[in-house]
Amino acid sequence: MNTSPAVDALVRRDLSHLWHPCTQMHDHETVPMVPIARGDGAWLIGTDGRRYLDGISSWWTNIFGHANPRLAAALADQARTLEHVIFAGFTHEPAVALAEALVRVTPPGLERVFYADNGSAAIEVALKMSFHYWLNQGHGEKTRFIALTGSYHGETLGALSVSDVALYRKTYAPLLLTPILAPSPDAYEAEPGESAAEVARRRLGELRQLLERHAHEVCAVIVEPLVQCAGGMRMYHPDYLTGLRALCDEFKVHFIADEIAVGFGRTGTLFACEQAQVTPDFMCLSKGLTGGFLPLSAVLTTAAVYEAFYAEYSAGKAFLHSHSYTGNPLACRVALETLNIFHDEPVLARNRELAVHLAARLAPLRDHPHVADVRQTGMIAAVELVADKAARRPFTPGERRGLRVYLHGLEHGALLRPLGDIIYFMPPYVVTTQELDHLVDVAMRGIDIAVAG
Ligand SMILES: Cc1ncc(COP(=O)(O)O)c(C=O)c1O
């Protein structure tokens, strides 16, 4: 790979000055850095002309394909009109229209929109807003959050505080708030003979016990609805969300739904919460919101939350959280165009067909001697590799089996980026069934190579 002089030069310049996220830079002594020149639909095209099918939507952001012409046109038009304006005391059409549209398409009861500029920042906003709501209501004793085991909500200090993926959290633990961890309703953890719905019920029982003990000091329960993504694409039954809504009401704590990864059609419905017919107190959105074009996030909340902050200035109840790029017009305009695409095109119906195709192609892997689980929720599918299928014993992490799948993918025109030994598929919605076939074929061969020896 990376054989042309132009490619080598770009990589050398990169490695001279850049520091990449989620990367041990030393790995690049052996793992190639891939210079990308342009994107085209579901494909990324290297500076040497090599093509990679983006099987993970570039960290789950790109839902309508790279260099999408509609989103590009909206962005260009907005750039010629208004690129940015301070969002305190000033407003603009794209921000207002996007808020109206988000209120229209999200579950009923979410009426207020607060913008931030990435997923982690949205989580910070939701955590602070929930805490501040209770403070404004005279409940300053509520300072803690309940999160699920295996959860991931981002990597700024607040978001990392409510995350439970050791890889990201362990090193920084001394800096973090201590959440109360409730056991995840992850269906992979089912007892023999137990259905996903039964796991959900059992885990709700355990959450109830935690709330009985801690509700007085808890602001909110935060979850990734239906799929815990970075924690390993762990999936659970919608009944958990229904039960969670009821428990939050009963124990007077907020329900924060982090739909940053699962929102915008990923799980089969526009928002995952719809599958449980629940309205959370806060819904965090980002990633697909701008189709992967620009960083933007939004926190939606209820009139009841908003009203708890609405008072004379002297009462000191205003919400305080400001980013320079809040409500950026370019990002808002692209997000509006993203919602227009959902409105104009049968995206969810097409996703359902793609999901059926993907499921059929992955089904044979269930019989693979090193595959413990093949699971899928809409346009997210995951294959769990293990050393011992019967005992579900994982491979030793240091063996980095998933990395072998990644490297095989790069050699054969596919961007697959396993989470440890979990190979997952989260392609842009513009992918064709033939392209899905390519992705699965490459992954299957990569899996055989990765588990050998
Ligand atoms: C569920 C979830 N929440 C929050 C985040 C953080 O978003 P960002 O990477 O934009 O900070 C992520 C990112 O992967 C995510 O998957």
How would you describe this structure in keywords?
four-stranded mixed beta sheet; 16 strands; 37% helix; seven-stranded mixed beta sheet; 453 residues; 2 domains; 14 helices; alpha/beta; Aspartate Aminotransferase, domain 1; Aspartate Aminotransferase, domain 2; binds pyridoxal-5'-phosphate
Q: Which percent band covers the strand fraction?
A: 15-25%
What is the tally of beta strands? 16
Strands of the largest sheet, in order across it? 4-12-11-10-7-5-6
Q: Could you say which small molecules are bound to this protein?
A: pyridoxal-5'-phosphate
The shape, in one word, is globular
| Derived structural class | alpha/beta
- From N to C, what is the helix and strand string? HEEEHHHEHEHHEHEEEHEEEHHHEEHEEH
Are there runs of 5+ residues with pLDDT below 50, and where? none
Main sheet record? 7 strands, mixed
**Mean pLDDT over the full residue set:** 97
* CATH fold description of the largest domain: Aspartate Aminotransferase, domain 2
* CATH architecture classification of the largest domain: 3-Layer(aba) Sandwich
How many domains? 2
Head-to-tail CA distance between termini:
24 Å
Total number of helices = 14
Q: Which radius of gyration do the C-alpha atoms yield?
A: 22 Å
CATH class of the largest domain reads: Alpha Beta
Task: Report on the architecture of this protein.
By secondary structure, the chain is α/β, with parallel strands linked by helices. The chain has two domains: 5-67 and 346-451, Aspartate Aminotransferase, domain 1 (Alpha-Beta Complex), CATH 3.90.1150.10; 71-344, 3-Layer(aba) Sandwich (Aspartate Aminotransferase, domain 2). 37% of the residues lie in helices and 16% in strands. Strand 13 (371-377) and strand 14 form a beta hairpin. Homodimer. Pyridoxal 5'-phosphate binds at residues 119-120, 258, 323-324. Its main location: cytoplasm.
